[in-house]
Fold this sequence. Notes:
Helix content is 34%, strand content 16%. The protein is of the alpha+beta class and 316 residues long. The protein is elongated, with a radius of gyration of 25 Å.
Amino acid sequence: MVILALRCVVQDHRHRSLLHFVRRPMAGLARQQHPDGSFGTLSTTALAIQALEDSDSGSGSPQHWSPAAARRWLLERQEADGGWADVGRTAAAAAALAPATLAAVRPPHCKDKLLDSRHEPLVLSLIELLAQYLAIHLKPSVLDVAMALATMVISNPLWANVRGLKTFNRPVYRADSNAGEGALKMAYQSGQAANESEARNVSFTYTLWLGTNVTENYTLYMVAPRNISFYHVMQMAAEHDPKFAFEASEWPNGHYVHTLGGHREEPMGYHYWLLYRLPETPDPSSPPGNQLVAPVGVDDLLVEDGEHYLFWYKKL
Length: 316
């Protein structure tokens, strides 16, 4: 990453004097290539490819590495779905294999390279896959998300306007209030489909509170098709986060949820799960009154855009 940053700096004519600070670490990095073409791990190999990219004709000019062998090593580890197992590694591999790397942030002439039509099928397929990975993989780190978005921006400006990411739909965040790293989950759609999708979808939050005094608090920020029942929302949430796993009894009039996140109702102790339908995000310091309990069961409750749904495990 240091080499990538320095390469961006020295391409400005005002900082050509710093070129010698780049050459030595690049040559040292090039000598680290293994006989199989890798530089160790997948992420390290992907970053090394980017750091040494175009070095034969540009700054550094090490002659001790084989870009073809490094890319071949990356491609041999590509999985059946076209990705590399998770958001971080897929973003790193996509950046290394795309025609423009993160080192292309600075050069004023990089636009021509980014729009090279010869690379467009590869770039678009990698970015589409990366967007899907961001949508379905659990708890990518903030760094992984940043790397993924940077890869999208750098790889093709048709997919991301650098000043505002205008061609992407707004992000959907998944936040676990008890996760120290502030885990994010983001789902993006291309601008062409965004308006159609927005008309079909609704955005809302789904929160779990544990305890009358709310000792645990978890929230998902979700997007789902219009006219979907809350029961189906619960199924979606459970697939993405085990904290939202649930059990329900099936009755003629629908499902009765008795367990959420491993916490089962205790009638003897008067502990029950209550579902609230709220106009604002629930605040433990100002808990909702029972008049806001959902008037129907999870099967008949249809989620609405901008609403907030709270399942609270409390003592009655």
